[in-house]
Amino acid sequence: MNKLSIFFSSRKSWTLPYIIFSAIFVVIPLLLIVVYAFTDDSGHLTLENFEKFFTHHEAINTFVYSIGIAIITTLICILLGYPAAWILSNAKLNRSKTLVVLFILPMWVNILVRTLATVALFDFFSMPLGEGALIFGMVYNFIPFMIYPIYNTLQKMDHSYIEAAQDLGANPVQVFLKAVLPLSMPGVMSGIMMVFMPTISTFAIAELLTMNNIKLFGTTIQENINNSMWNYGAALSLIMLLLIAATSLFSTDDKDNSNEGGGLW
């Protein structure tokens, strides 16, 4: 009893619920994906699932197309989200809080409901569903994830750098390019990760906004899982996870380099 009381009174015991939760809902599912990816229906070790992917041109084309859609969506979110975050960070305090809530408010609605509303909007204006609708729906659903990290970074930025640049005679464009943009890059990289990763793995938005005429990589994984092709579906999931992990490592390296340089060019 004394040992238990000492254990539960220590701060280390506070992490126990999180360790259990992570083990059940994160570690074990990831291990199952790896096991299924490298085994066949009989449970024997094999690389046939990956060979099938690399020899299946349709799956590779879908994979490349999904990356392209994710890149386009992320770039549009940056182009639209950065000015919005800049305006919000320079607005008056009460007004900026209200505007931020208005941007975040749609996130309180389920993503499927928002996507169905987008379908209804296109139907109301008699606009065809397809690739354009897909990109519009992606941007609409994920742009708040780009705006808020950038806004948060700009809001916490040390404005003495801007004042110093202005005192040295820099014009507004130079101030933005040499001071504001480099210092806001951590927020931009966070926004890229929060937009790129879910975009490349989603399938519901593509199904609803293209009437299932355009398949993304997430759709391919879902179809294989639904058809009880667990091993091949797990291999595809592992490939997508490796891509996301590589993107995360690239983002971390860029962030470390910017921190070493002091955040300025």
From TrEMBL:
One Pfam family from the record: BPD_transp_1
Protein location: Cell membrane
ABC transmembrane type-1 domain boundaries: 63-251
Gene3D superfamilies: MetI-like
Chief place of localization: membrane
Family to which the UniProt record says this protein belongs: Belongs to the binding-protein-dependent transport system permease family. CysTW subfamily.
Protein name: ABC transmembrane type-1 domain-containing protein
Lineage: Bacteria, Pseudomonadati, Bacteroidota, Bacteroidia, Bacteroidales
